[in-house]
Design brief:
Number of helices: 6
Structural class: alpha/beta
CATH superfamily of the largest domain: FAD/NAD(P)-binding domain
CATH architecture of the largest domain: 3-Layer(bba) Sandwich
Bound molecules: NADP nicotinamide-adenine-dinucleotide phosphate
Number of domains: 2
Strand content: 15-25%
Shape: elongated
Radius of gyration: 23 Å
Length: 324
């Protein structure tokens, strides 16, 4: 299988890249990856994507961009890319079912994944009360008591979503003030189901078959307290999904893909956009904007390649005057 542009990842960055590349008649192929629609598809409500007066569901937003790009010829494939060979042209990509896809240009938009707490009990009780997706799992916690760890926008956004279902929600935050936007803070402080434990973090998740509680440690006093809860939702930031590219392109010390500010990586023909690059803004709208940039840069790159190839062919066909 060959495509002029292969887009790895299907969040707002990848899907917007697909839209622009499709409108440039490049018939891009989007390899959807593990999380079709990206992290935004697991977000209940997106209130700050321009153009949606009453907000829009994250899944619906991703689905809409996907359909919009498909209308102009974008193709989709449910697979994971497991290998990228950038030593030859076209690039050679291998999928998890050992299929080979060749591409003249590649756009990396693999996003990021929720960071784990790394405490005892977390791995063992994953999907047994430990969840990183309130939108997906909130329903299972009807009438229950849960802990959300973190004080950023994700923690508050997703925690507030959980209050639709749970009886009690405790935010455990390592400082005594929140990083989240004031509008979310106001909503959380005025929600009767919500309370905060400040200057603290979860040092162990308790339970055998399912979560029965957490051990919380106060970072100022060192005092620990066991809380009986049914669920734990860590929202302590994200790590970029870039390990596949570590030997191919330049990454920074935290694993974010390095670009020149115009989505070019250090390998000509490989572009990157969205949360796998951006550790500052990390918004759906900024990811979409970078996806647009990456597609435009890829379009210009391919046009230049085509022009250079044509010129080379002409030189071969018509030897320069004076060589006769
Ligand atoms: P974030 O803004 O980096 O917040 C992570 C939170 O987890 C912080 O409160 C941090 O504490 C805490 N934390 C980090 N490591 C920890 C650890 N080891 N133990 C305990 N707590 C820890 O990440 P995010 O909330 O996932 O948001 C990521 C980006 O997406 C941000 O730019 C955010 O604005 C954006 N976002 C926006 C919206 C929205 O606009 N509605 C929704 C979701 C996400 P400190 O505060 O002490 O550092």
């Amino acid at each position: 299988m060959h495509s002029q542009v292969v887009i790895i990842g299907s969040g707002p960055a990848g899907l917007t890249a697909a839209l622009y590349a499709a409108r440039a008649n490049l018939e891009p192929l989007v390899v959807r990856g593990l999380q079709p629609g990206g992290l935004i598809a697991t977000t209940s409500e997106v209130e700050n994507y321009p153009g949606f007066v009453d907000g829009i569901g994250g899944y619906e937003l991703a689905e809409n961009i996907e359909k919009q790009a498909a209308r102009f010829g974008a193709q989709y494939k449910d697979a994971l890319i497991t290998k990228v060979d950038a030593s030859q042209r076209p690039f050679v990509l291998t999928t998890d079912s050992d299929e080979t896809i060749t591409a003249d240009a590649v756009i990396i938009s693999t996003g990021s994944s929720p960071r784990h707490l790394g405490v005892p009990g977390e791995e063992k009780l994953a999907n047994r009360g430990v969840s990183y997706c309130a939108t997906c799992d909130g329903f299972f916690f009807r009438g229950k008591k849960v802990v959300v760890v973190g004080g950023g926008n994700s923690a508050l956004d997703e925690g507030l979503f959980l209050t639709r279902y749970v009886d009690e929600l405790i935010f455990v935050h390592r400082r005594d003030s929140l990083r989240a936007d004031p509008v979310l803070q106001d909503r959380a402080f005025s929600n009767p189901k919500v309370r905060f434990i400040w200057d603290s973090t979860v040092e162990e998740i308790l339970g055998d078959e399912k979560v029965t509680g957490v051990r919380v440690v106060n970072l100022k006093t060192g005092a620990t307290e066991d809380l009986a809860v049914d669920g734990v939702f860590p929202y302590i930031g994200h790590t970029p999904n870039s390990s596949l590219f570590k030997d191919i392109i330049e990454l920074d010390e935290n694993g974010y893909v390095l670009t020149d500010g115009r989505t070019h990586t250090n390998v000509p023909g490989i572009f990157a956009a969205g949360d796998v690059v951006d550790h500052i803004y990390r918004q759906a709208i900024t990811a979409a904007g970078e996806g647009c940039q990456a597609a435009m840069e890829a379009t210009w790159f391919l046009a230049e390649q085509e022009h250079a190839a044509k010129k080379k062919a002409e030189q071969v066909e018509t030897p320069a005057l004076g060589t006769w």
